[in-house]
Amino acid sequence: MKNLWEISTTEYAGGKEGVMRRGNVYQLANGYMGYRGTLDEFGPAELVGITLAGIFDRVGLAWREPVNAPNGGYTRVSLDGVERSVLTSKVTRHHQTLHLASARFERETVFSARAKKLTIKSARFLSADTPNLGVIQYSVSCDKAANITIRTGIDGNIWDLNGPHLLQLAAEKREGVLLVQGVTNENAKRVLVAEAIDLNFGEETHEWQDQRNLRVIRWQAEAGQTYTFHKYFAVVTDNDLAGKPIEPAAVKMVLKAKALGHAACLEKHRAEWAKKWERCDVQIEGDDEAQLALRYSIFQLLIVAPVAGSANSIPARALSGQVYKGAIFWDTEMFMFPFFLHTYPEKAVELMRYRIKTLDGARRKARTEGPGYRGAFYAWESQETGDDACSYFNIGDPFTGRDLRTHFRDKQVHISGDVAIALWEYFKLTGDDSLLLEGGAEVILECARFYFSHAYFKKEKGRYEILDVIGPDEYHECVNNNAFTSMVAKETFVIANAMVEHLRKNQPKALRALVKKIGISRELADFREAARLLYVPAPDSKTGVIEQFDGYFKLRDDTVEELKSRMVHPNEYLGAGQGLAVPTKVIKQADVVMMLNLFKTRYSAKIKQANWEYYEPRTEHGSSLSACAYAMVAAEFGDLDFAYKYFLKTAKIDLEAKYKVYVGTVFMGGSHPAANGGAWMTAVLGFGGVQADENRVVINPRLCAQWQTFRFYLAYKGDGFRIKITKTAVTISSPSTNVRRHTMLVAGNKTECAPGASVTVKYRPTKQ
Ligand code: IFM
User: Fold this and answer.
1) Packing angle between helix 640-651 and helix 626-637, nearest 10 degrees?
2) Rounded CA gap, 590 and 681, in Å?
3) Nearest alpha carbon to residue 718 among 701, 741, 699, 689
4) CB 316 near ligand 1, within 6 Å
5) What are the Cα distances from residue 434, in Å, to 312, 430, 431, 697?
6) Residue 160 CB neighbours (<10 A)
7) Residues 132 and 195 sit within 8 Å (Cβ to Cβ)
């Protein structure tokens, strides 16, 4: 039977491309850092990357990007004086596994040389208990007596897209601990890696060569004997210990881990992961393919969930490297945040704290970006300060090599509303207004202020309009009245008004202080008016189809296939100035359909179906964010087969790693946490039919044909529930640790869920 808690492969070749894709698939992370799924002996040419969360750097005029740390996991082995690597030696067997339950990467490789067989095994994890720490167990054995040399330590040769970011690289060995330190180019932040090992064989000498700070361990190995040591490496930066000496902290960390020992470190790490899975796993009976893909997607989200107290967020390519500048996009709020909010609110809050932390950056952007913009215009590509990392020429033209003017940065204004919506959802589903008081309320008001400064009052129609924007479909820039954007802007006003009412009733002092602080008192009436008068394109009275933006229906109705047949270069970008899609109705990704999914209670199933049927054939799905929106909406109007197809497409994106790695000339080969979140949303919110708001949880299951039983956890208002859905019944178990009785609406039946009780409700399955 297939193990649905691991993935493995015997592949190790495939050139740079194969190594790059496997590096993504087999990556580990712990919120603090990511470690690509590369092999111990690999270097920068094989895209080894230990990508750090929340620390960025810029070299010259190149894009700012996250900093990669020196590789404290580096080890290479020589047999009888010749180095062995999967890249250059004869490999008779190779096997590597990613263990999802314990977030560990293992490899075993057998090399053949001169009638000898050398076996190396290694297993690594990035501690879920101590975020700065990585731990590796490394073993070597040879079937015949042999001279073996191991070089292990810290590799200061760092793979960077736009580096080098660490200057003045310096190495040391102190108290048996290896150290490599560098300083970032832009902000002079120190990044230090310390490494300690436990070794009980061989002669150890020291080498600092080619930017590598290494221990050289030589010994005469006996035939068939296994030699094992453990490596403990820690990454510490000025972000962790601003202004304080970082070296003693790093040394202490690795020596402490070493004293604790590998087994104890692993035990602590496993215990943390057991807690994560206890809460976040989703179980599907009857469909192993979906089970593994969904579990893998959840794993991808859990490994990059921000460390408690960091106020970091999750970049669009997670911690799989420096792709997309390590930046945070709307992907987080719209696609990843729902998973955390419904299962792991402690992480959801961290994601929101990031937006609070970067509010000043959003204010700066509003001031500098637009004509008279005020409030908070969040960065399209956000890094640690909230200033926009997105350039005005963000895609390279593969024909000319020149950069194309794109308007992602200046016109994709829905980002501010996406943030406001997520903040409000957090309040509604947790019932906890402390985040609002911590700065969330200020964010919401500043987002509303931004939209009011952006909105145009069209006198002859007596309405506000949001003009000159880009919606989620990035192939059509500078459009007026984009349905998604206008709806999100309107909702921001609705939320601002509701929030002010909430605070007025429950936190009047805090509200008064906030209104005074940001001087917004007179604008509150504007927000009420804008909530009423902001125009959002409505469904056509005959067809039910919502026009994506003014004039969309007049565009040329080419098919996606026709468009693609005209492509001259495989990586050419279909949008921007002269992109093939610009004069046509072909859209990049779900736009109106994304809006129908986000505001699902406001539109009928009929409207959803009409729009889905209109837009799906016209969607290129050029973004990994697209398929899940179509899947969720299809589940709502009952096309479960289609929903399933797009669910799988989304859930398998990182597992299969067949995604495109270039847009124009821009390399973007990393993992896709938004799609991972989309997979979870399609499963739980789509097939599970979960819809929670401030008043109650509604569950209207519509299981796809393949699934017999579907189990998941749901966090709601400080309590948690285990939900089991079969083809005919929903069972909700409320643990005795729950504090309150909750009323849920299950398949139309009002259901009381009391702490310690379990309740089953029968339902009639959706006809297919
Ligand atoms: O945020 C997305 C955008 O919607 C489409 N291009 C890629 C971005 C990052 O995933």
Assistant:
1) 160
2) 15
3) 741
4) yes
5) 18, 10, 9, 22
6) 19
7) no
Q: Torsion-angle region of residue 632: left (phi > 0), alpha (psi -120 to 50) or beta?
A: alpha
| pTM of the model as a whole | 0.97
Q: Which atom of ligand 1 is nearest to the CA of 380?
A: 1
Q: What is the pLDDT of residue 100?
A: 98
In sequence order, which ranges of 600-710 are alpha helices (DSSP H)?
Answer: 605-615, 626-637, 640-651, 653-656, 673-681
Q: Token pair of 761, please?
A: 């409700």
Q: What is the C-alpha separation between 3 and 9, in angstroms, rounded? A: 13
End-to-end alpha carbon distance in the chain: 30
Ligand 1 pocket mutation pick from 313, 332, 390, 474 by most atoms within 8 angstroms of CB? 474
What is the residue with the minimal CA distance to atom 10 of ligand 1? 316
The reported pLDDT for the residue numbered 244 is 87
What b-and-e string marks burial along 556-592, b requiring 16 or more CB atoms within 10 Å of the CB? Answer: eebebeebeeeeeeebbbbbbeebbbbebbbbbbbbb
473 lines ligand 1 (CB under 6 A): no
What are the Cα distances from residue 653, in Å, to 437, 602, 675?
38, 30, 7
- State the Cα–Cα distance between residues 634 and 613, nearest whole angstrom: 10
Query: Is residue 442 annotated as part of the catalytic site, yes or no?
Result: no
Of ligand 1's listed atoms, the one at least distance from the Cα of 324 is: 9
Instruction: With a cut of 70, list the residues of the chain below it in pLDDT.
Output: 767-768
**DSSP letters spanning 343-377:** H-HHHHHHHHHHHHHTHHHHHHHHHHHSTT--S--
The response to whether residue 676 sits with its C-beta less than 6 Å from ligand 1 reads: no
> What is the chain's mean pLDDT, rounded?
97
643, 649, 651, 657: CA torsion to nearest 10 = 180
Instruction: For residue 263, give Cα distances in angstroms to 123, 197, 269, 388.
Output: 12, 14, 10, 44
Residues 702 and 638 sit within 8 Å (Cβ to Cβ) = yes
CB of residue 180 inside a 6 A radius of ligand 1: no
Buried b (16+ CB within 10 A) or exposed e, 412-445: bbbbbbbbbbbbbbbbbbbeebebbbebbbbbbb
User: Which pair of structure tokens corresponds to residue 751?
Assistant: 């259901």
Residue 625 Cβ inside 6 Å of ligand 1? The answer reads yes
The predicted pLDDT at position 767 comes to 66
**Using CA positions, which residue lies closest to atom 7 of ligand 1?**
623
Question: Do residues 68 and 163 touch, judged by C-beta distance below 8 A?
Answer: yes
- Residue 267 corresponds to which tokens in the numbers above? 């035990």
Residue 329 Cα: closest atom of ligand 1 = 1
| Residue from 383, 388, 624, 625 whose mutation best tests the ligand 1 pocket (most atoms within 8 A of CB) | 625
Question: What whole-number distance in Å separates Cα of residue 177 and Cα of residue 249?
Answer: 12
What's the token pair of residue 80?
A: 């009888």
Count of Cβ atoms closer than 10 Å to residue 702 Cβ: 20
Regarding the beta carbon of 470 and ligand 1, being less than 6 Å apart is answered no
| Domains, the chain, ordered by start | 8-278 (2.70.98.40), 281-327+624-768 (2.60.420.10)
CA dist 647 and 293 (Å) reads 10
Residue 140's contacts (CB-CB under 8 Å, 6 or more residues apart) are: 77, 118, 119, 120, 148, 150, 221, 226, 227
**CA–CA separation, 320 and 206 (whole Å):** 31
Produce one character per residue of 30-60: b if its CB has 16 or more CB atoms within 10 Å, e if not. bbbbbbbbbbbbbbbebbbbbbbbbbbbbbe
Ligand 1 pocket check for 343: Cβ under 6 Å:
no
Indicate which atom in ligand 1 lies nearest the CA of residue 330: 1
CB 195 within 8 A of CB 178: yes
Pocket probe mutation, ligand 1, options 304, 329, 626, max atoms within 8 Å of Cβ = 329
Choosing from 474, 523, 547, 636, which is the catalytic residue?
A: 474
Backbone angles phi, psi at 414, to 5 degrees: -65, -15
